[in-house]
Specification:
294 residues; mainly alpha; MetI-like fold; globular
């Protein structure tokens, strides 16, 4: 049995991971399909239909502006998932680069990079994120039109979250690189004159991919939570673009009148984080080289 077939079989045996993957796919793809099927638009305002109860064409009712709650949840899920996954990938890229360089170079480079990692870990994450998210891009030379665009808001929040989320991956990659460096085939490659870059890319990196994939998947859930917190505080994704965080922020003002407006985005965040954790567990089992052969 080849490697991919073995991976697929192991992953499919993990039912919770499969269920988590299904939930994430539905969260990512359901919005346009549901909108087309029901003839609804997440941005359509109906001030005469504010706080409508579920039913009557709105399966979950409407919000304070008469917009369909279900459609805003689905499109908000796309935004939150995109931010979380993009930030997780960015953090994984930074962490892999730092860990690979530290593990393969050693010495002063290793010590400097690991102390930098320790310093980032020691920083108070939420206050730092608040400060970075509140930076006015126009003062950094970004044109006002670009700084206030939806794309700039998404890119900024992804960059800010990725800048503090890479430390776990860096430590995992460094530990894996230090272990792989002592193996005979790596020593043989070095004895034959292979450069450090070639050794790192051809022999070390493939051996640390599995833990990086698992760590990235698990980190995505935490990064979605961070995005939700920043959006809740008004420093993340800005309306009218929906995200679960800013939906919660809007709902706090009307929680006495319409508590469901806070319940639904909270439940979606909870379900998504659990699904990502299940997916990470399944990937860990499927990629574990110590697992018994099928």
């Amino acid at each position: 049995m080849n490697g991919f077939a073995r991976f697929r079989r192991r992953f499919l045996r993990h039912r919770a991971a499969v269920a988590g993957l299904v939930v994430l796919v539905l969260m990512a793809l359901a919005a346009p399909l549901v909108g087309a099927a029901l003839g609804l638009d997440a941005t359509q305002v109906d001030l005469f239909g504010r706080y409508a109860p579920p039913g009557g064409g709105h399966l979950l009712g409407t919000d304070e502006a008469g917009r369909d709650v279900l459609m805003r949840l689905l499109y908000g899920g796309q935004v939150s998932l995109a931010v979380g996954l993009a930030a997780a990938l960015g953090a994984a890229l930074i962490g892999t680069s730092v860990g690979l360089l530290a593990g393969t170079r050693g010495g002063r480079v290793d010590a400097l990079l690991m102390r930098t990692t320790d310093a980032v870990i020691a920083l108070p994450v939420l206050p730092l994120l608040i400060v970075l998210a509140a930076v006015d891009l126009t003062r950094l030379g970004v044109p006002a039109g670009s700084a206030q665009s939806e794309e700039a808001a998404l890119l900024r929040i992804v960059s800010v979250i990725a800048l503090v989320g890479w430390t776990t991956v860096a430590r995992l990659v460094r530990a894996g690189a230090l272990s792989v460096r002592t193996r005979d085939y790596v020593r043989a490659a070095e004895a034959l004159g292979a450069s450090r870059l070639r050794v790192a890319m051809r022999h070390v990196l493939p051996n640390v991919v599995a833990p990086v994939v698992v760590a990235t998947t698990l980190a995505a859930g935490n990064l979605i939570l961070l995005e939700s917190v920043l959006s809740f505080l008004g420093l993340g994704i800005q309306p009218p673009v929906p995200s679960w965080g800013n939906m919660l922020s809007n709902a706090q003002e009307t929680i006495a009148r319409a508590p469901a407006l806070a319940l639904w985005p909270g439940a979606c965040i909870f379900a998504t984080v659990i699904a990502l954790n299940f997916l990470g567990d399944g990937l860990q089992d499927a990629l574990d080289p110590r697992a018994a052969a099928d």
